[in-house]
Here is the input.
Amino acid sequence: MADTSNFRNGFSMIWNGDIWSIVEFMHVKPGKGGAFVRTKLRHIRTGKLVDNTFRAGEKIEEARVERRKYQYLYEDDLGLHFMNSDTYDQISLPRDAVQGREFIKEGGTIDIIFHSETEKALTTEIPGSVELMVSFTEPGIKGDTAQGATKPATLESGAIVNVPLFVNEGDVIRVNTEKGEYVTRVNV
Here is the structure.
């Protein structure tokens, strides 16, 4: 058992019957009354954020989680298939268990977070930005760039993002996976 003095960003715990991770916390010692800890918690499976206050010294059950790198292999009727980069073990996850699926291409790597005691996959995390090739986009119209105009582009992973008019088919671009937005064109 841990208590509130063990809190740190990324600390995983079992709270209300589920596994939660601390996003941020702050110890507060008011002038009157007992000390407490304000926290912002993220549900490991759903990503939902909640605020909660714990009394200072309150006992919390720590949850051990492991982050492992997996390579995306392919998708079929059973879901998405991944391979552990170190042990070559394969795992399949349902489509809805992989957030940001549209930004993962075959051969790309993601982190899968496992509960250490049960070896059950809890959630996945994709990199904050990825580099993908533009597989289809309409040609830009010359002279139509006064207001920073954009056009839709289909990427090799199947995602559709808005890109500036100067981006063409075959260009490699960097995409912010959290917002699903174009960042920059990458020179290959």
Summary: The chain has a mean pLDDT of 90. The chain has three domains: 2-62, 65-125, 129-186. DSSP finds no helices and 16 strands in the chain.
